[in-house]
Amino acid sequence: MTIKVLVVDDSAVIRNVLARVLSAEDDFEVIGAAPDPFVARDMIVERKPDVVILDIEMPRMDGLTFLRKLMQYSPLPVIIVSSLTPAGSETALEALRLGAVDVLCKPGAAYALGDMVADLAETIRAAARVKVRQHLTQERPVGRPMGYTSLSNTTNKIVAIGASTGGTVALERIITALPSATPGIVVVQHMPAHFTKSFAERLNGMCALDVREAREGDAVVTGVALIAPGGYHMVLKRDGARYTVSIRSAPPVNRHCPSVDVLFNSVARGAGRNAVGVILTGMGADGAKGLCTMKEAGARTIAQNEATCVVFGMPKVAIEMGGADEIVALDDIPRQIMDMVLRPNSQKRAASAG
Q1: Which residue among the candidates 50, 89, 190, 256 is catalytic per the annotation?
Q2: pTM of the model
């Protein structure tokens, strides 16, 4: 199947570069390159692209306003290509909330064109399969945290969550539903540098948990959610009954840094049966093997179900590999996490034996 792509960017250089490199892919047809949303609107009506690549900062109409209108009147998969800046990351996160499939950074000193093109091509192929209208209608207001006020015997528990494409919205819905008494949470969301800090700050203002971008040596404790910083791997460390995280600069794993597999493997080693692992929406297979490793170490494991995933890639592979104890709809995951935290591990073994 040929995927029709429309590029929308006010920079003629970016338009030309993206059009040239994407046209070199056998399964892509670049049906247009628009300098602003008004030209893009006419191209969308006339040429009916499968995927739109959209810049945020443009003249005449900004990208967010255009995206909002597009999702209201003619929803289709949109990939944001944004500058790698803290201000740009906040705007890009809003774009994801409005319905954009994913956010990539424009090539620059820290992100070579070849790497960007490889990531963009993979993202376009995944985005072309996304049923945007379906996921927009699934959106629900952020609810109040569940009413768990006292959790006994959970201080040594760990919740590890991995997500990619579509994960920012999924994590928002999960973390805002969890109570302040939730055991320590460690999260890998595939995002570039700067984006993770803005994402953590945004979540922190919305929920009962203390959410922040992880730093070297941060303690993993009840009521705290640590998000791996973009461009670094995060691993769980255990010293007696105390958990901390280590932030490491290392090559990508499964083409990602941070990598879900890196985190999950460390949680399997450090927490074992005291952990709950959750794999959410995302393309590729990062985290699938790690979830299996966690399960083999005695952890409880959850995979998001296909119907509520933006991209049913990572959870699908994990399920096929036998890594998921439970396959759960997005809005049911918070309660499933708390049930697994509260239920003694002996009940899991008894249920498996029965």
Answers
A1: 190
A2: 0.90
